[in-house]
Design goal:
Length: 304
């Protein structure tokens, strides 16, 4: 009961525009620097290089969401393009992750699509890949519609499917051949659209992982759950799925020992590296996901 209450508080805070605006002025606080790789492209590239040296690959995410005017969305588009250019110049091994609401999805679909075309075209020029993060369920269909439009022209773009949504299985089947990051889901969703029971979410998560792998599609399994990871290892061995058809993904700053162990075992291990001054919503969702994360953050806060 207490865990659910704290989860709801953190999720509520993550959606507060007032708190998000205030946090931009605070700088990285409350232990956030343990899980956010600085506020600039330069600081993020430095962290990526350090992770690469440990045998880990990355995906960079310039934090930001729910942009309400075109100027901000255009600015975010250009920032993402500069991030791709910086990745190329530095020669580091990293993809790019983006959020469509940061690029104007709530303003106008075609405007957002045009912004995404510029980003994906830049990535193609540098032989790189762009992952469209999935946001809350109200943006799910628009995200998939936009992905469909992009994939008419580009094959270096994919998205994320969240296992807690009832629609996840059908979406994965419809997206056969598309590189997908599969996650459990981190937003507060109503029972009308999403499983609420952890066991059901876990079962559906393994279900969509199996479906996508067996379809021959590239699969990024994004979880810190060692039980799921062990099940995936067993499944790929039993079904002769080559290691170049999947990867594990984890968040920067979490389970670093497990990240390095997977890399040592010869698996592709990609670290999701967020950066930027719009860190508050991301950080609050991480605290909401697992009670352990709160202790982790407090340790970082008082350890400074």
């Amino acid at each position: 009961m207490l865990a659910q209450l704290s989860k709801n508080i953190f999720l509520y805070a993550s959606q507060s525009k007032m708190l998000n605006q205030a946090a931009k002025k605070w700088g990285l606080r409350f232990g956030a620097s343990q899980v956010v790789a600085g506020e600039t492209i330069e600081s993020a590239i430095k962290k990526v290089r350090e992770l690469n040296e440990k045998g880990l690959v990355c995906t960079l995410d310039h934090l930001g969401e729910f942009v309400s005017n075109r100027e901000e969305a255009i600015e975010a588009t250009q920032y993402n393009i500069r991030t791709l250019e910086a990745i190329h110049r530095a020669g580091v091994r990293s993809n790019l992750s983006v959020k469509l609401t940061q690029l104007g999805l709530d303003i106008d679909f075609d405007f957002c699509l045009n912004n995404m075309r510029q980003i994906v075209e830049t990535a193609k020029r540098y032989n790189n890949f762009v992952r469209i993060d999935m946001e809350d369920s109200s943006h799910c269909q628009a995200t998939l519609d936009l992905l469909h439009e992009l994939r008419r022209t580009y094959d270096n773009v994919g998205t994320v499917i969240q296992a807690y949504l009832y629609r996840a299985e059908q979406d994965v089947k419809d997206l056969k051949g598309v590189s997908l990051r599969l996650v459990k889901g981190a937003y507060k969703e109503p029972p009308e659209v999403a499983f609420q029971d952890k066991q059901q979410i876990d079962e559906n998560y393994m279900n969509i992982i199996r479906i996508h792998l067996l379809s021959g599609s590239y699969t990024a399994i994004a979880t810190h759950d060692h039980h799921i990871i062990e099940k995936v290892k067993t499944f790929v061995e039993e079904n002769n799925i080559p290691r170049n058809q999947f990867e594990f993904q984890m968040l920067y700053g979490f389970r670093t020992d497990m990240q390095q162990q997977l890399a040592k075992e010869g698996y592709t291990m990609r670290v999701y590296v967020p950066f930027g001054n719009d860190w508050f919503g991301y950080f609050m969702r991480r605290l909401a996901e697992r009670p352990q994360n709160v202790a982790f953050a407090l340790k970082g806060f008082f350890g400074k």
